[in-house]
Amino acid sequence: MRLWQDPQFVFGVATSAFQIEGAVDIDGKVESIWDTFCRRDGAIADAGDGRVACEHYRRWEQDFDLIASLGVDAYRFSIAWPRIISDVDGRVNQQGLMFYRQLLEGLAERGVKAYVTLYHWDLPQFLQDQGGWLNRDTALAFRHYAQVAASELGDLVQSWCTLNEPWCSAVLGHWFGVHAPGIQDRAAALQAAHHLLLAHGMALDALRKNAPQAQHGIVLNLSPYYSAAETPGDQAAAEFAALENNHWYLQALLQGRYPQKVWDYYDRFRPAICPGDMEIISQPLDYLGINYYSCQRVLACEPTDVDWPPYKVQEPASNVPVTAMGWEICPSGLTDLLQQLHREYRLPPLLITENGMASDDQLFDGAVVDDQRLTYLQQHLSALERAMESGVNVRGYFAWSLMDNFEWAEGYRKRFGLVYVDYDSQERTLKRSGQWLQQRLLERKQRGVV
Ligand code: IFM
Q1: Is 165 a catalytic residue?
Q2: Would you list the domain boundaries of the chain?
Q3: Does 443 participate in catalysis according to the annotation?
Q4: Bridge partner residues of 403 (DSSP)
């Protein structure tokens, strides 16, 4: 595979703060919306929360040794905003900064590049109390946080990401209500999406000023939307679904507008936009991060309610391979998606910032044989390579996730890690998929590629 021979291509593993750190009320950290949401009855499938998670806050050195032993070039992780900023006035928590400085120094000592995300969903609760992403001031608060993070930590960071998957924060958090803050309101979702993108633009500017030597971008979760049947109605529905879920974000970021069809369809729910917002949102990016897990198959339907779209996402058929999340395994979708984006946009360089699968892994005799994940990774890397061979400029690939962790509303039951975590003992075991990746990366080093 050409991918393995390119010394510039970055291989990494990824995590996020709330999913692994634990220590949610230690060293001056204040509450996030996920701390609050986890206390809501029935919100988390196994009633789990972030209090202990993978105890990474305490065990980070051991975890970093593990990362280094994998032979990856980079580690993608997020900073918990509520560890850094303590109140509505923007007071800075030095202990929080010290923790992340330690992490960054730990990575530098091990020769691993730091890819840092500022927002992976853990909004400080004090901002939610002021309206959260429905309040435009949250974008200004995010700019302040970005400025503090970049000026205090920027010398050790190679790549910054403003937001991870704003679709999830907006739609899962404000429309479906299955993620924090658990709101169910179509208009709120569109307004939150706009303020998230505005926050991205404002933070980008602060990052460029305070950490000019680093790369700056954003990460979107994207899927190809296929028509589940050949009828023109279903094809139009798939097109609408792609516009609503992918291009709403892509067009705003890359072209400074929202897709007209979706704008017209949701005329009752349009977000408030101030003059100049779209210019702030669509500043040039050094890279666009794409999180890819699956494809979506769509059927046309009559909306049951005014705030529902004119399509339905079909459940995978019983003969289609799925992950433990029930998501279709669809490696060719990655090639299709990348090629479509390449055709439709003038893209910055791309990174695959997450890719992986949940499976029902079992630790048996000290080993975890997760062959389904191993195949998943191989197939997706081949699919990525096919896209690159056809001309798509992809500069890196990060496996999700380094280790099993808190899978949001699913709690701890869904395991995405290359490393198995025994939540009773906190013991880590490299799964077979992780051993495979490690072997490939070490061979690559031995061949002198990097
Ligand atoms: O675990 C999540 C991650 O936090 C964001 N992207 C998708 C992953 C799997 O659901």
Answers
A1: yes
A2: 2-223+250-291+325-446
A3: no
A4: 419
157 token code pair: 């960071």
CA distance 377 to 383: 10
**pLDDT bucket at 1, cuts 50 / 70 / 90:** low
Helix (H, G, I), strand (E, B) or coil at 157: coil
Q: Rounded CA gap, 74 and 12, in Å?
A: 5
What does the block give as tokens for 42? 């029935």
DSSP per-residue string spanning 419-448: EEEETTTTEEEE-HHHHHHHHHHHHHHHTT
Atom 4, ligand 1: residue with shortest CA distance: 16
Positive/negative CA dihedral, 164, 169, 170, 171: positive
pTM of the model: 0.98
Q: Which helix (H) or strand (E) holds 126?
A: helix 125-128
Identity of residue 100? Y
Of all protein residues, the one whose alpha carbon is nearest to atom 9 of ligand 1 is 407
Average pLDDT over the chain, rounded to whole? 97
Tokens encoding 69: 């032993």
Q: Which fold, 2-223+250-291+325-446?
A: TIM Barrel (3.20.20)
